[in-house]
Amino acid sequence: MLLVEQFVIIALLTMMSNVESLVAFPPKRRCAQGVFGKGKSASERSRRDILHTFMSTLILWPTVKKSCVAYEPDPDPVKESLYLISRVQEATVQQERFVRKASDQSTLKNKMKLTLLLIEKNYKLVDQLTYCSRFIPSDSLVIATEAGNEATEELQSAIDYVRSDLNSGPLGDDQKEFITNALVNTREKLFIYLDFMPQEKLEGARKRIEDENKLNIEEFDGDEDAGVYNPVILPWKNR
To answer: Is residue 93 a contact partner of residue 87, using CB atoms and an 8 Å limit?
Structure first.
């Protein structure tokens, strides 16, 4: 789930480099107390202000984590899982952009280690695929399960490569190709898996992502901090 931890990672990345895009901020956030002010909802403060607050108060993180509730899941658990799977697909496109523009191994490693950690921790792809498998017709279960397993393996291969095989020096074309292929394969295998999901629920989950991203574009449009949120074209829009 898109929890408060994301803001810490985003803040760290922002201080390290000019972050283009991580994940979309959900439009609803609530904080009971802590650095945001007791009793104030996130709707009373912009996501931009929350980010700035975190950048200046990271030392308070243990307190903030206990006192803030930052995410409201979809009441339909199937749509919630489909939403998170679709967010993984979006994230693979964002990570590809990092790779495409990178020229140095250590810089890319520092950036992607954090963002891949965010994807792995918050979206819990294996959990979502396991849950959604309950709703796949029995005659399609083998094909869908195979696609889901391959998607998770490809994502893990990207994570492992970034953690273990990127060191220092110029980023080679073969390194870019390996990471990019793993990200693309993750996304494409998930498309195969999602073909077996209830399409109305899938469309609803994707619409939620599109609406959230639109809200963020409107918030950051024309602002000097817009570089923090620079969305990609959602992958299902190109199919």
So the answer is: no
